[in-house]
Design goal:
Layout: H1 6-24, H2 32-39, H3 56-71, H4 76-92, H5 102-112, H6 117-120, H7 135-140, H8 145-157, H9 163-181, H10 188-195, H11 201-214, H12 219-229, H13 235-248, H14 253-261, H15 267-282, H16 289-294, H17 298-311
Helix pairs in contact: 1-3, 1-15, 1-17, 3-4, 3-17, 4-5, 4-8, 8-9, 9-10, 9-15, 10-11, 11-12, 11-13, 13-14, 13-15, 14-15
């Protein structure tokens, strides 16, 4: 990673995830056909009505980043003490009105009531409420992969315990580390499957389908293939669509994010993940200036990104 401007990559990640989230928000809950009917044949292509408000996806990513900075080199138990506090603060915040997921809210309520983070998560849920907040984990622990794996696991399972969601959280965090490291996106599926080996056959099958779609020369056929297998709600499918979008448009932030959000399903979460990964890869300069200037709380996001870049320490693996 010699020569990488971590401040630029961190800003790219935090701004990118918020921008992808805000762009995708108007398309959430709509099918691809409904998106095109409402916003034109190309779907959503800019902030709708100049509204650049992000959702709970960015709010929770901020909470994770703040917890990482607060915990620093503490053992996993110390990290999860910080995560629990930040999640409960978010749960109780008057700003928590941006369509938060049911599984996440229920888990945060349990933690508020005193349930351990080890028991608070929904064992059945594999929704995307955990995967969309995982990229900061990959940035923070990019040089300590055992710690990255542990942290992505525990931060995910405190709300979503399904093995497929767990694999997707670890895969997303690892993808963020690959983005910072400069690994070509074409290599990401194989690397992600190796990193998450044995966690979930369903997740592995999803990543294999991403490889198949990305290998198709005809993008229209690839999008049709994605639409056939990916409904865009579960954690593995949200990462899958985001990963496909990065692989299809590896050097173009705009094309990548717009490809990601113009899909059926949880468009803001897909955009959040795609924006985080592509922003971490390409840096702030790759993001259109009008999107950067328009996103809400831009200054706060940049300041947090700078703290992440300055404060991400090399760590040693610690036991649960």
């Amino acid at each position: 990673m010699n020569g990488v401007d971590l401040r630029d990559r961190s800003r790219g990640m935090m701004l990118g995830l918020a921008i992808g989230d805000a762009l995708g928000s108007p398309a959430e809950f709509l099918s691809l056909g409904q998106i095109k009917e409402r916003y034109g044949p190309n779907g959503v292509s800019d902030y709708v009505k100049d509204k650049a408000m992000f959702t709970d996806d960015t709010q929770m990513s901020i909470a994770v980043a703040e917890a990482l900075l607060e915990a620093g080199r503490l053992p996993i138990t110390g990290l999860m003490d910080a995560v629990t506090r930040k999640f409960v603060e978010w749960h109780d915040s008057p700003d928590n009105f941006r369509a938060p997921g049911i599984a996440t809210m229920q888990a945060c309520r349990r933690m508020k009531e005193g349930t351990s983070w080890m028991l608070s998560g929904d064992k059945q849920s594999k929704g995307c409420g955990s995967v969309m907040r995982s990229a900061p984990v990959g940035f923070y622990y990019r040089d300590a992969l055992p710690r990255l794996k542990d942290a992505a696991h525990v931060i995910g399972i405190c709300t979503h315990k399904n093995p497929t969601a767990d694999a997707a959280c670890q895969g997303t965090a690892f993808a963020a580390a690959l983005a910072i490291d400069g690994t070509p996106p074409a290599q990401w599926p194989g690397r992600i499957m190796a990193f998450t080996k044995g966690l979930s056959e369903e997740f592995t099958a999803t990543i294999h389908r991403v490889e198949s779609a990305a290998a198709m020369a005809d993008e229209e056929k690839a999008v049709s293939f994605i639409g056939r297998f990916f409904h865009g709600w579960t954690a593995d499918e949200v990462l899958g669509i985001a990963l496909y979008s990065v692989m299809r448009h590896p050097e173009d932030f705009s094309a990548c994010v717009l490809r990601s959000i113009n899909n059926s399903g949880d468009s803001d979460s897909i955009g959040c993940v795609a924006g985080a990964l592509q922003g971490a890869r390409l840096g702030v300069a790759a993001i259109p200036g009008k999107w950067v200037q328009g996103i809400e709380r831009r200054g706060d996001l940049e300041a947090l990104a700078d703290r992440l870049a300055a404060g991400a320490p090399p760590v040693t693996q610690t036991a649960l």
